[in-house]
Inverse folding.
């Protein structure tokens, strides 16, 4: 098989992976609230306070 | 704040940023406007949560208001069950609606709830929907504890019947499906473009073998776009044809199918590259248009009915005292206990000696109505002051107010014909005619080109640009309006607004401002001692007029007078003995002035101190800012009208700035309002109703466009097409102007897209349409329409200073 076909197929496979990632992101609710995560990541945890690991259930 | 006052200093509350006017409260060098704000600060300070104040300055909300949120109904397990999303023996999860969430500090605090209550496992905010999801250990904590904690720190959750019904799950699937379709179409569009390039740029004979592979790949890539992403156009076209009507989706569906079939034919028979890039690009652009138009305000609700006002449970008498019972289970004859600030959920009869009932949700009227023992009380009123016991007369769903929702106006389906669909009727016919004529012509001159021309015409005529004109215009309008605090339910409302010729206003709460009263004292100036005595006297009264009098005097220094006796007489006034002096406040007759004044444009509180008549307090309604100029401007272009639930005492005031011919109907019941709108529509008027209370709900629904005016967009507004923040009222005529002018934007872009169609058609008819030409013309037309409409709307709104 010619190298161009290999490249084309590879590129499409990679693109499909990204599409899959996008679909997963939409379905798991990452686009439901586009504001709070942007703020949340800037919060600093103060040393001693330990947070219990929250159950990672999606809210949808 | 009930009254504007001179602020002696510019001290701002550390918590909420309001000016500190009353007794100064200082803690840790920080000033607070009220004890509520100070308490919140103390709670946060004690728990090392003062980072709250570091993300935004004065992030809190003023606690300086009456709050009477009671959450004891959450002890009822049936009620809790309706609210909880998840519960097992160890933990429970609940999603609460908290309209107060407004900034990043709120998110920070609410997501660190576990520091305030260690039993909380996790808390996550959804800023868009103003919701908080909390999980907690059930052995140490309960839903009631959680609600009370949130209330204490100023984030009172709103828990009502509606939320229990929908169980915290708002249908978001539509939005998600659209995003997924958009993603797939975008993905395929990019790849098809890439794979089409070799065909356009020319390919050397050496690499001819690839050409066919690329074309087949294009074919496969376009299949999900046509059959998944574009499927709704076929469905919609089929539906509209079934009703013998051609909406805009019909020519789109024809164009897409011809494009696809022609391209498949070309690839399979190996004669050409097909039009896959145009095809996929077309659907991609159409979906973008849909997405742009689909601007939703998640924090707002446009479909509220009485359920969102009514409480979940109410204190009902059972054997052994009062217990919380879910409102749906309340039956005729039950004895219920309503406390200060609670809503009466069903028509009932008062059995205590008296009660004040505030019908502001229902009528917009803020002054509480006094009810005496044995009087019939309609559901929807909020009790203010002392608690009262009632005997329920009708179950919740059949009460006077809720039965309004049985009116057919609430089941009516919206039959609105869009402008673009009217055009597409002719458009479809013309296109089919042109393609047939062209095909016949080529059949006679050069039969080999017949099919090519026939397909080319249908392909190039696909009204992508036409279909994008309206979504992008309305989408931009929605954004401009949203920025100015007026929120439309959806894009259709913009089109319906174009046709409006009559605007009907509700009075109380809509053109008057309920939360502010204009109060002054008429008579000889009161001495300091007299003012201090009055304060002491009115402080013990819960009557709303007493509160207004108190707010007028709130700057007066505290005194050491003492209240010796106090008596409040129903329908008359208050009689107080302050340090040996008799203070009488109330009606004219009560203070011994004889008949009361016939002037009904304001409420009066007459004052007698000792044996001297001292004067009267005058409490007047305040009209919304800019009302006069708004009415004057609107009056030139529209027929106006007033539908008020109140008596006609303010007719004279209103007619001073409404046009002479304005019909004013007073003492209108909710269904009278609805019928009045119906009558106007029957004579061909297109009516916009502007209202606020639940009593306008029927009229808002019946009218062609219902606009709800509200002080707080996230909490209370009846079902409507648009929600307008009270601040935006003074710009009302500008909004209408903007929407009216947007019509010309749509016309201009229609003209532009038709021009593209003429160019494309002339090429297609002459048999010169190549895939490359189509691939340039079609996106070009779409993009230029998008740019044109967006810029024009921007230009118009800048001109109107919006």
């Amino acid at each position: 098989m010619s190298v161009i076909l290999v490249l084309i197929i590879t590129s499409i496979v990679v693109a499909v992976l990204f599409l899959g990632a996008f679909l997963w992101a939409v379905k798991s609710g990452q686009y439901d609230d586009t504001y709070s995560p942007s703020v949340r990541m800037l919060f600093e945890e103060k040393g001693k306070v330990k947070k219990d690991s929250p159950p990672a259930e999606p809210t949808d | 704040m009930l009254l504007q006052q001179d602020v002696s200093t510019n001290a701002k509350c550390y918590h909420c940023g309001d000016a500190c006017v009353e007794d100064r409260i200082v803690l840790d060098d920080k000033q607070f406007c009220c004890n509520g704000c100070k308490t919140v600060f103390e709670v946060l300070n004690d728990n090392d949560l003062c980072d709250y104040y570091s993300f935004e300055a004065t992030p809190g909300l003023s606690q300086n208001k009456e709050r009477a949120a009671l959450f004891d109904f959450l002890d009822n397990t049936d009620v809790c069950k309706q609210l909880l999303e998840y519960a097992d023996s160890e933990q429970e999860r609940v999603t609460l609606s908290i309209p107060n969430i407004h900034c990043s500090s709120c998110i920070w605090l609410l997501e660190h709830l576990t520091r305030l209550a260690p039993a909380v496992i996790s808390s996550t905010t959804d800023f868009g929907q103003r919701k908080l999801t909390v999980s907690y250990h059930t052995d140490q904590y309960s839903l009631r504890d959680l609600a009370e904690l949130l209330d204490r720190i100023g984030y009172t959750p709103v828990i009502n019947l509606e939320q229990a019904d929908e169980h915290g799950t708002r249908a978001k699937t539509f939005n998600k499906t659209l995003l997924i379709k958009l993603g797939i179409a975008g993905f395929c569009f990019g790849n098809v473009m890439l794979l089409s390039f070799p065909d356009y740029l020319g390919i050397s004979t050496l690499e001819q073998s690839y050409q066919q592979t690329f074309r087949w790949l294009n074919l496969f890539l376009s299949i999900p776009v046509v059959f998944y992403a574009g499927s709704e156009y076929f469905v919609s076209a089929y539906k509209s044809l079934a009703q013998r009507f051609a909406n805009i989706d019909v020519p789109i569906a024809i164009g897409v199918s011809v494009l696809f079939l022609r391209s498949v034919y070309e690839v399979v028979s190996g004669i050409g590259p097909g039009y896959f890039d145009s095809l996929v690009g077309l659907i991609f652009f159409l979906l973008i248009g849909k997405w742009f138009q689909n601007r939703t305000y998640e924090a707002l609700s446009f479909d509220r009915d009485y359920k969102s006002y009514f409480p979940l449970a109410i204190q009902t008498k059972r054997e052994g005292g009062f217990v919380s019972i879910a409102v749906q289970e309340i039956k005729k004859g039950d004895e219920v206990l309503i406390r200060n600030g609670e809503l009466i959920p069903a028509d009932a009869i008062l059995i205590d000696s008296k009660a004040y009932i505030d019908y502001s949700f229902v009528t917009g009227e803020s002054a509480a109505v006094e009810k005496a023992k044995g009087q019939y009380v309609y559901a929807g009123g909020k009790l203010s002051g002392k608690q009262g016991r009632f005997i329920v007369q009708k179950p919740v769903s059949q009460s006077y107010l809720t039965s309004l929702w049985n009116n057919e106006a609430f089941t009516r389906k919206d039959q609105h014909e869009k402008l673009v669909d009217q055009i597409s009727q002719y458009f479809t016919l013309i296109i089919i005619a042109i393609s047939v004529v062209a095909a016949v012509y080529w059949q006679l001159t050069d039969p080999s080109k017949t099919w090519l021309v026939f397909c080319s015409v249908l392909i190039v005529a696909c009204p992508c640009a036409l279909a994008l004109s309206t979504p992008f215009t309305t989408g931009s309008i929605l954004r401009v309006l949203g920025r100015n605090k007026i929120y439309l339910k959806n894009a259709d409302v913009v089109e319906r607004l174009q046709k409006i010729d009559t605007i009907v206003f509700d009075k109380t709460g809509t053109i008057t401002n309920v939360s502010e009263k204009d109060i002054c004292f008429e008579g000889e100036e009161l001495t300091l001692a007299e003012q201090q005595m009055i304060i002491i006297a009115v402080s013990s009264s819960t009557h709303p007029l007493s509160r207004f009098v108190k707010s007028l005097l709130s700057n007066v220094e505290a005194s050491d007078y003492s209240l010796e006796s106090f008596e409040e007489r129903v329908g008359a006034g208050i009689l107080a003995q302050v340090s040996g002096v008799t203070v009488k406040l109330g009606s004219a007759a009560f203070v011994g002035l004889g008949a009361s004044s016939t002037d009904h444009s304001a409420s009066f509180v007459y004052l007698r101190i000792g044996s001297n008549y001292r004067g009267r307090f005058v409490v007047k309604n305040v009209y919304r800012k800019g009302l006069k100029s708004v009415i004057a401007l609107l009056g030139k272009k529209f027929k106006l009208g007033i539908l008020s639930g109140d008596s006609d005492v303010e007719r004279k005031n209103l007619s001073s700035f409404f046009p002479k011919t304005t019909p004013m109907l007073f003492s209108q019941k909710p269904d009278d309002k609805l019928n009045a709108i119906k009558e106007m529509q029957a004579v061909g008027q297109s009516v916009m109703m502007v209202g606020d209370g639940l009593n306008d709900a029927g009229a808002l629904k019946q009218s062609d466009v219902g606009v709800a005016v509200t002080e707080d967009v996230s909490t209370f507004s009846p079902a409507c097409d648009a929600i307008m923040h009270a601040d935006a009222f003074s710009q009302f005529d500008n909004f209408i102007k903007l929407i009216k002018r947007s019509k010309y934007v749509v016309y201009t872009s229609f003209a532009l897209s038709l021009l593209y169609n003429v160019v494309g058609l002339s090429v297609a008819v002459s048999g010169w349409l190549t895939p490359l030409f189509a691939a340039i013309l079609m996106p070009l037309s779409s993009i230029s329409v998008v740019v044109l409409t967006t810029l024009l709307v921007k230009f118009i709104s800048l001109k109107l200073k919006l």
Remarks:
- Chain B has five domains: 72-166, 174-293+416-473+741-799, 311-344+347-393, 486-513+624-732, 515-623.
- Residues 79 and 584 of chain B are 46 Å apart (CA to CA).
